[in-house]
Write a structure and sequence with these properties.
single chain, Rossmann fold, 4 domains, five-stranded parallel β-sheet, 20 helices
Length: 471
């Protein structure tokens, strides 16, 4: 993936190089200009996501540059840098002119990187909104996470807020909701992105091997230890370590983990040396951690140490409005992986999915879509490609006679879906469908012709037995 670009505008070469070095360490591609006029010209060529400009830049100053960019390149985020004599101007630019942030020189590298990461996300959202004609404030994805529901917008915001720090984060939610994806997104948005992201599943490793996996071992530490091995903490030094299913970790190891988190050192099995490590620890669990504490399975002091910030992942059944986006993304990626022609999901197939409870969440949806993509011979995944999957029977029965739509669905789309669902229920008997909908047969035909002209009907929809009186 191409690195995001940041343009630095300052007449002081020492400031320019200091800022560029700090941003390069955070993974950004940078360029520089000595004044506002040169910077404005460079924006069109370099196409940065964010511009950092001195408020008192020669020629076109920071405020003038901000106003020009709002007109010519509104998708570009602007952060202003100020000296002691220009703080008021920078604050006014943030409050009134649309600047995303400001920094007083000299600045802290970590805070600078965090602010630029946030600004890049804002710029990306603006670009997506301009391209798709949607609301730039609503993101349809974040890293590999997909969804534009209010619940997912909250998750995206929390990721942005916690990523710049080194605070521990506890990720909670049912299995299959995407906790590891959130952990990876936090790492990729953090100043640690250039170092390793290491994930370990605490429930999948035998207790006898867990300590070695976490802390490593020296040669001869136990039978079969023929060479020194670095554990997960050393592998993730200066990076991020995800402890998945943390509530399943054996109690003795929980105590050792707590010591490592407090002292920031590890001792390999069979070793005598304390090895310093700088690791950001993220933990995940599909259990209620407080219930695990009450059950005696999880140390309360470890929970407090890990639970500096909590991000709860919503189950799929609570964000059904994200199903179309998720299904489209999965069909595209899985069809490419398997070399299949599937490109879209029919409305009838989508309604079957909407009626399902999804106890396995997004992971279950992926399995359903993968099976459908493999057996689909055309470009549209139809209902019969999904129906053989053992969906909840009561939900499937409800789906036959009901139509579930998210709040905010345009009335025209409500009408279209209701017409197609009624035709599906009547096996495409248009006369019967028109009777149930209490509209004339001519009106039904006109509606179907309009949908077909707009490309809102897949092959086979709206076709079928002739209505009475058709010739």
């Amino acid at each position: 993936m191409a690195r995001e670009r940041v343009l630095v505008i300052d007449d002081d070469p020492a400031v320019r190089e200091t800022v560029r070095a700090a941003l390069a360490g955070c993974g950004f591609e940078t360029d520089a200009a000595t004044d506002g006029d040169a910077g404005l010209a460079r924006v069109a060529e370099f196409r940065p996501a964010v511009v950092l400009a001195d408020v008192l830049a020669p020629g076109l100053d920071g405020l003038g540059l901000l106003r020009e960019l709002r007109t010519r390149h509104p998708e570009v985020g602007v952060i202003l840098m100020s000296g002691a004599g220009s703080i008021d101007s920078a604050l006014r630019a943030v409050r009134e002119e649309g600047a995303l942030d400001y920094f007083e020189k000299p600045f802290d590298d970590a805070r600078l990187c965090a602010a630029v990461i946030r600004a890049v996300q804002e710029s990306r959202a603006r670009r997506n909104g301009a391209t798709e004609g949607g609301d730039a404030g609503v993101r349809e994805s974040f890293g590999k996470l997909i969804g534009k529901s209010a619940a997912m917008q909250k998750v995206y915001t929390l990721i942005e807020q916690v990523a710049p720090s080194s605070a521990s984060v506890l990720l909670t939610g049912e299995s299959g909701t995407g906790k590891e994806m959130v952990a990876r997104a936090i790492h990729e948005q953090s100043p640690r992105r250039a170092a390793e992201f290491v994930a370990i599943n605490c429930s999948a490793i035998p207790e006898t091997l867990m300590e070695s996996e976490l802390f490593g071992h020296e040669r001869g530490a136990f039978t079969g230890a023929s060479a020194r091995r670095h554990g997960c903490f050393e592998q993730a030094d200066n990076g991020t370590l995800l402890l998945d299913e943390i509530a399943e970790m054996p109690p003795l190891l929980q105590a050792k983990l707590l010591r490592v988190l407090e002292e920031r050192t590890v001792r390999r099995l069979g070793g005598a040396q304390e090895i310093p490590v700088d690791v950001r620890v993220l933990a995940a669990t599909n259990r209620d951690p407080h219930d695990a504490v009450r059950d005696g399975a999880f140390r309360e002091d470890l929970l407090y140490r890990l639970n500096v910030i909590t991000i709860e992942l919503p189950p799929l059944r609570q964000r059904k409005e994200d199903l179309p986006l998720l299904a489209e993304s999965l069909i595209t990626s899985l069809a490419g992986r398997h070399g299949r022609p599937a490109r879209r999901l029919s409305p009838a197939a989508l309604e079957v999915l909407r009626a399902h409870h999804f106890p396995g969440n997004v992971r279950e949806l992926r399995n359903i879509i993968e099976r459908a993509v493999i057996i689909c011979s055309g470009d549209t995944v139809e209902r019969h490609h999904i129906a053989p999957y053992p969906l909840d029977q009561r939900a499937r029965a409800r789906s036959e006679d009901t139509l579930t739509l998210p709040i905010g669905t345009p009335l025209e789309e409500v009408e279209r879906r209701m017409i197609l669902r009624t035709l599906q229920k009547t096996d495409n008997n248009k006369t019967r469908a028109a009777e149930l909908l209490q509209i004339s047969l001519k009106t039904l035909h006109n509606k179907l012709r309009l949908y077909r002209e707009r490309g809102q009907l897949s092959d086979g929809e709206g076709a079928g037995p002739r209505s009475r009186g058709e010739s």
